[in-house]
Amino acid sequence: MAREKRKPKKDKQKDEPQLKEEVELVENGEEGALPDDEEEPKPFVAYFEAVPAEAMSPQAKEETDALITRLQAGESLSLPQSRPMPSIGRRCHELRIQEEDGIWRVFYRVDPDAIRAVHVLWKTTQKTPQSSIELSKKRFSQVDQVLKLAAAQRQRREKNL
């Protein structure tokens, strides 16, 4: 499967993630099952809007792409590139992409079938804002609800065949 490459908006938090596309992917059977080939990279699915091209430096974009590629290949990242975020949920982490005047944080979860990212922010301080943690929790909860509904719909269709 090809990686779905999207970039988040700088400092913009929305209450609702972009879930319609995920539902369509799951319903069409393009996602939601474990890959047949262990070597096949996991898809990267982003639930936020793109960062304006000028927001991230070319070096930060390159580093982000490289880290996502490593995650897709099944590599477990640790500090300084990534750190666990148990305050958000199980299997949740933050990618850390350093720039000269701050750091990008991408909140993601490693699921059996995909790498799912729900939030990105630009930070100039050490502490992660509680609002970003709460937004990420909410979005992961919404993603889980959509995936559960899509799986139930798929099972109903299979029973009817």
Describe the structure.
The chain is built from three helices and five strands. 34% of the residues lie in helices and 20% in strands. It has helices at residues 20-27, 58-72, 130-160; strands at residues 44-46, 82-84, 92-99, 102-110, 115-123. Strands 1-5-4-3-2 form a five-stranded mixed β-sheet, with helices on both faces. The protein is of the alpha+beta class and 161 residues long. The longest helix has 31 residues, at 130-160. β4 and β5 (115-123) form a beta hairpin. Residues 1-35 have low confidence and may be disordered. It has one domain (20-156).
Give helix % range.
25-40%
Distance between the terminal alpha carbons, to the nearest Å? Answer: 26 Å
Biggest sheet features: 5 strands, mixed
Low-pLDDT residue spans: 1-35
Number of domains: 1
Outline type: globular
Order of helices and strands: HEHEEEEH
Number of helices: 3
Mean pLDDT: 79
> What integer value in Å does the Rg equal?
16 Å
Strand-residue proportion: 15-25%
Strands side by side in the biggest sheet: 1-5-4-3-2
By DSSP, the count of extended strands is: 5
Structural class: alpha+beta
